[in-house]
Design a protein that fits this description.
CATH class of the largest domain: Alpha Beta
Radius of gyration: 23 Å
Structural class: alpha/beta
Oligomer: single chain
CATH superfamily of the largest domain: NAD(P)-binding Rossmann-like Domain
Order of helices and strands: EHEHHEEHEHEEHEHHHHHEHEHEEHEE
Helix content: 25-40%
Number of domains: 2
C-alpha cells in the first residue's frame, strides 16, 4: 500500500511522517522550495525536528517497506492507493470561503486517479462540501465514476500548531467514508497509526460538521470573554481576577479574552455561516462572535492610546514595542494573525512601532504584511511595551529594562507576573 499526502504544511507533513513510519508515503506539494527543504531534513514550520524527518526519509532510511519521499512532480504519486488532501481552506477579504486550493488539489489527484483508489480529505469545510464541490472535480478530471470506480473519505485535521504535547498520533481522529465499506477502510487506515484511537462517524457530512463546530464553539466562547473584558474594563474590574474566581467552580469553562487569529478559529465559522445562509438561516450568534473577535485589534489599540494619555505620555512619535506577531505562542505561524490589526491601528496615531518576535521569520512577515520585525531583543528604551503573544521566551525577560523612565506595560495576554499598567 502506498499513501499520497497532498499538501505538506502544518497538517500534511506531520501526518506524512506518522504514516511513513509504517507505510510507503509520497508527499506532494506545489511549493518546490518547501519540498526541497523537507527532503533535506528541514521543517521550517518547526512542527518536526530534523531527527523526526531523518528517521522516515527514504533517502536516509534503510527500511524500504516504509518511509517518506517528497515531490512536486505529479508522476511520482501515480502509484498511490490512498490520497489524503490536507490543503488550507481560507476566506477572502469579504469573509467568503475560498475553495481554490481544495479544487486545485482535487484536480491534481484526479489526473492520476485509478479504479478503487480512495481520496481522503482533511481540510475544514462546511457540511456537504466534500461531496458537492470536491467529488465532481475528481469525476471530471479523472473520467471515473464516484462510488463505482473510486471512493472518498473524510477525516478532519486536529493539528494544534506549536503544541508538542498533543501531536497528531495523540489526538483522537474522526473518520468517515462514502460507503460503509470504505468508511471501515478509512477508519482502519487511521487506526493503524493514531494511538489515541478513532471515532467512525455515520456519514461524511457528520464528520465535516463535527470539525467546523469545534472551532466555531471556541470562537463563540472567546467572543464572550472579549465582551466581558470590555464590560469589566468599564466597571474598573480586572478580568483575570474575575475569571480566577469564577474558575473555582468545577464546570466553568476556562476560556480567556484575546486576539483570535490563525487559520482555524478565525476562519472556520465563516464556512458554517455561509452554508447556513444558503439554506435560509442567518446564524446571528456565530456572526456576532466573529464581529466581536475581528474587532479586538482596533479595540486594543484604542485602549493602549487611552492608557498613554492617562499617563501623560505623548502619542505622536512615541516609541511602542510590540512583543509578538505570530497568531499564537511558541509557534512561527503568522497566518491571519490579528496582532497586525492592532499594529496598523496604532500606526494611524503616528506612533513608532517596533515588532520583536523570536519565532516569526522577518522575510515572511514582510512579504505577507509589509511590516518589519526583528528576532533579536531590542536594545532601545520604549514609552510603551505591549505583550501581544505570550511566547515562553518573553516570560523570562525583565520588561522593565525595555521601558523609558515613565514607560508603561500593556499585557494583552494577561500572562505577565506582577503589576502592569493595563491589560485586556
Amino acid at each position: 500500500m502506498k499513501i499520497g499526502i497532498i499538501g505538506l504544511g502544518y497538517v500534511g507533513l506531520p501526518l506524512a511522517v506518522l504514516f511513513a513510519k509504517k507505510y510507503n508515503v509520497v508527499g506532494f506539494d506545489i511549493n518546490e522550495k518547501r519540498v526541497s527543504e523537507i527532503n533535506q531534513g528541514n521543517d521550517t514550520t518547526l512542527e518536526l525536528t530534523d531527527l523526526d524527518l531523518d528517521n522516515v526519509l527514504n533517502s536516509k532510511s534503510e527500511n524500504k517497506d516504509s518511509g517518506l519521499f517528497c515531490t512536486s512532480n505529479i508522476e511520482d504519486i501515480k502509484e498511490c492507493d490512498y490520497y489524503i488532501i490536507t490543503v488550507p481552506t481560507p476566506v477572502d477579504d469579504t469573509k467568503r470561503p475560498v475553495f481554490t486550493p481544495l479544487i486545485k488539489a482535487s484536480e491534481t489527484v484526479g489526473k492520476v486517479l485509478k479504479e478503487n483508489d480512495i481520496v481522503i480529505y482533511e481540510s475544514t469545510v462546511y457540511p456537504g462540501a466534500t461531496e458537492e464541490i470536491c467529488v465532481p472535480v475528481l469525476e471530471k478530471t479523472s473520467g471515473l465514476t464516484f462510488n463505482k470506480d473510486f471512493y472518498v473519505g473524510y477525516s478532519p485535521e486536529r493539528i494544534n500548531p506549536g503544541d508538542k504535547l498533543h501531536t497528531v498520533e495523540k489526538i483522537l481522529k474522526v473518520t468517515a467514508g462514502s460507503t460503509p465499506e470504505v468508511a471501515k477502510k478509512v477508519d482502519d487506515l487511521y487506526s493503524s497509526v493514531i494511538t489515541a484511537g478513532t471515532h467512525l462517524a455515520p456519514t461524511i457530512k457528520v464528520a465535516e460538521a463535527s470539525k467546523v463546530i469545534e472551532n466555531t464553539q471556541r470562537d463563540i466562547n472567546i467572543a464572550f470573554m472579549n465582551e466581558l473584558a470590555k464590560i469589566f474594563h468599564l466597571l474598573d474590574i480586572d478580568t483575570n481576577d474575575v475569571l480566577k474566581a469564577a474558575g473555582t467552580k468545577w464546570n466553568f469553562l476556562p476560556f480567556k479574552p484575546g486576539l483570535v487569529g490563525g487559520h482555524c478559529i478565525g476562519v472556520d465559522p465563516y464556512y458554517l455561516a455561509q452554508k447556513a445562509q444558503e439554506n435560509g438561516y442567518n446564524p446571528d450568534l456565530i456572526l456576532a462572535s466573529r464581529r466581536i473577535n475581528d474587532g479586538m485589534g482596533e479595540y486594543l489599540s484604542l485602549q493602549i492610546i487611552k492608557l498613554m494619555l492617562k499617563h501623560d505620555l505623548k502619542v505622536k512619535d512615541s516609541k511602542i514595542l510590540i512583543m509578538g506577531i505570530t497568531f499564537k505562542e511558541d509557534c512561527p505561524d503568522i497566518r491571519n494573525t490579528k496582532v497586525v490589526d492592532m499594529i496598523k491601528n496604532l500606526n494611524e496615531y503616528k506612533v513608532q512601532t517596533t515588532i520583536y518576535d523570536p519565532w516569526a521569520e522577518p522575510l515572511e512577515v514582510k512579504n505577507e504584511y509589509g511590516l518589519t520585525t526583528t528576532q533579536e531583543k531590542p536594545t532601545d528604551k520604549y514609552d510603551v511595551v505591549v505583550l501581544s503573544v505570550a511566547h515562553q521566551k518573553f516570560q523570562t525577560l525583565d520588561i522593565n529594562d525595555l521601558l523609558n523612565e515613565n514607560g508603561i506595560i500593556y499585557d494583552v495576554k494577561g500572562a505577565l507576573p506582577g503589576k502592569v499598567h493595563g491589560r485586556l
